[in-house]
Each structure stands twice: as C-alpha cells, then as structure tokens.
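Here is the promised in-class demo. Please do not try to memorize the tokens; focus on the logic of going from shape to residues.
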C-alpha cells in the first residue's frame, strides 16, 4: 500500500511559482504511475499532470501545458509538480495520486490518494 502526502501549497500572487511535493510512505513509488489532480470549489476534480513509473511518459492538462512540470525522484520516493506563471484560475486543492494502470487522466484509475494541499493564487 502507498500513502501519498502532499506539501508545498500556499498563497501566492499571480505570476509566481510554487513547487508541490508528494512523498510516499509504505510501498515505494517507483512501481506506480503518479498523477496530480486539483479541485476548485464547486468544480469536479480534474487531472493536472501524470507521469509513468519510469518517468518516460508524461501528460498535462491543456490549461497547464508549458507552465507546470511533473517529475519524480524514485530514490527519494517523491514526486513533484513545479508550477510557474500561476494564475488565479489555478486556485484549488491539489491532490497527489498513485496507481498501477499506467498514466491515466481519470481519477477513478488511481488507487491511492493524499489529503491534498491548498494552492491559492491571488493579488
């Protein structure tokens, strides 16, 4: 079993950067595909980025392409989401998820979830 734990959220101004981290306890992340999702108030949870267990395949939501980068350090059992040029519409709770079905866009395809970290982009 994998237990992801997110960190790194906070309140930033538009245009700023943040790096979210997802550390895992339990089973190593090196055998799982990882996803970052977000959920804004009144909206459904949506994929932000996903990464295969080898790190060779990544996917991004169109809204974050060119601004966000997902990466992993299997030696540290940690996955990252580097977020640049943040916009107010990026405000949401960000969740880290782990799964064994390859890189997926659907939240239902991931098996383990963290508790989430709040990201607020506001001037």
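The designed amino acids, position by position:
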């Amino acid at each position: 079993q994998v237990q992801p734990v997110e960190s790194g959220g906070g309140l930033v101004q538009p245009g700023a950067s943040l790096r979210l981290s997802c550390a895992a306890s339990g089973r190593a992340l090196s055998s799982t595909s990882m996803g970052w999702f977000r959920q804004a108030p009144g909206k459904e949870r949506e994929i932000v980025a996903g990464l295969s267990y080898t790190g060779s395949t990544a996917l991004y939501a169109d809204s974050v392409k060119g601004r966000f980068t997902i990466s992993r350090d299997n030696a540290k059992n940690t996955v990252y989401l580097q977020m640049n040029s943040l916009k107010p519409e990026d405000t949401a709770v960000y969740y880290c998820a782990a799964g064994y079905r390859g890189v997926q866009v659907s939240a239902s395809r991931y098996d383990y979830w963290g508790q989430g970290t709040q990201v607020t982009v506001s001037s």
